[in-house]
Design brief:
globular; Aldolase_TIM; lyase; binds ligand PBG; ALAD; TIM Barrel
Length: 332
């Protein structure tokens, strides 16, 4: 809502910008630690922190280190952590069976976190790419990413995660019908309180590059993901996807990537009012970190500003690799 100010000099907008106290008093949006979800990469081993070159400051962690990160998140007041696996090469197959194994990295990490830090919400990713020999989110049959067969596999994957104790399932695959299929399978299996945060408005973006390095899917990917992710040029299509996912039983929805898509965040929140999250993705993180490391931008400032802007755009929260750093800064 805007109101037209009285003409100058009655209205001097700078009056309320004069001091910190006045500026704080009229600040419209706030960023807090409870707005953050922290994405974390999991790998095999013990005591391992394996740095990801395209994401300075981010590493793939062995499960013991993930549990330590979870404890740190809880301590900082971050409500949720989101797990992404870096699967051993031998377990990446065309049939992707590892994706629904109760003993896969994600499911073991969920159980380990829940044993040590039960109060922290654990979110997962549902898509086949970390397990797929060809790096795609779905099964590939004769060069085509097949929808319905993939949905059946994603349901098995989500059920295994729910069984392991996940609080929030995050289908990021963009197959049609997966939210409804997952929701009814969860109900039937007695997991009626497991929530779904749908990657509803997920665009076919160039900003996912460093993430694909992190989960080891980048060099494997054959072709691109344009037959299932949304064209970055399309607003109405993104809103249709959000409407559909909410109808099918998503509890929360996501817009992804974040910073170049704030208009979509605003439109989703205004139109549906549902809990709306943005994913400040790996490429956005890499971009800000690279500039900060070169001394071209003030890292802390742009980190805080970029996250606050998601709140202004209507988001209820943000998945960000900056989560622990922001939380520590906000607490200081
Ligand atoms: C894929 C998935 C991707 C991300 C989260 N889940 C990448 C993709 O769609 O290729 C990207 C997250 C990021 O870039 O930080 N299932």
């Amino acid at each position: 809502m805007t109101r037209s100010p009285a003409p100058f000099p009655a209205a001097r907008m700078r009056r309320l910008r004069r001091t910190n106290a006045l500026r704080d008093m009229v600040q419209e949006h706030q960023l807090g630690t409870t707005d953050l979800i922290w994405p974390v990469f999991v790998r095999e081993g013990t005591g391992v922190e394996d740095p990801i070159p395209s994401m300075p400051g981010v590493a793939r962690l062995s499960i013991d280190k993930v549990v330590a990160a979870a404890a740190r998140a809880a301590d900082l007041g971050i409500p949720a952590i989101c797990l992404f696996p870096y699967t051993d090469a031998a377990l990446r197959t065309e049939a992707c069976e590892e994706a629904w194994s109760p003993e896969n990295l994600t499911n073991r990490a969920i159980r380990a976190i829940k044993a040590e830090v039960p109060e922290l919400a654990v979110m997962t990713d549902i898509a086949l790419d970390p397990y797929n020999a060809n790096g795609h989110d779905g099964f590939v049959v004769e060069g085509e990413i097949v929808n319905d067969e993939t949905v059946a596999a994603l349901v098995k994957m989500g059920l295994a995660q729910a069984e392991a104790g996940a609080d929030i399932l995050g289908p990021s695959d963009m197959m049609d019908g997966r939210i409804g299929a997952l929701r009814s399978a969860l109900e039937a299996a007695g997991h009626r309180d497991v929530t779904i945060l749908s990657y509803a408005a997920k665009f076919a973006s160039g900003f996912y590059g460093p993430f694909r390095d992190a989960v080891g899917a980048g060099t494997r990917l054959v072709g691109d993901k344009k037959t299932y992710q949304i064209n970055p040029a399309n607003t109405a299509e993104a809103l249709t996807c959000v409407a559909r996912d909410l109808d099918e039983g998503a509890d929360m929805v996501m817009v992804k990537p974040g910073m170049p898509y704030l208009d979509i965040c605003r439109a989703v929140k205004d139109r549906f009012g549902a809990p709306t999250f943005a994913y400040q993705v790996s490429g956005e993180y890499a971009m800000l970190m690279a500039a900060a490391q070169n001394g071209w931008l003030d890292g802390d400032k742009v980190m805080l500003e970029s996250l606050l802007c998601f709140k202004r755009a209507g988001c209820d929260g943000v998945l960000s690799y900056f989560a622990p750093r922001v939380a520590a800064l906000l607490r200081a």
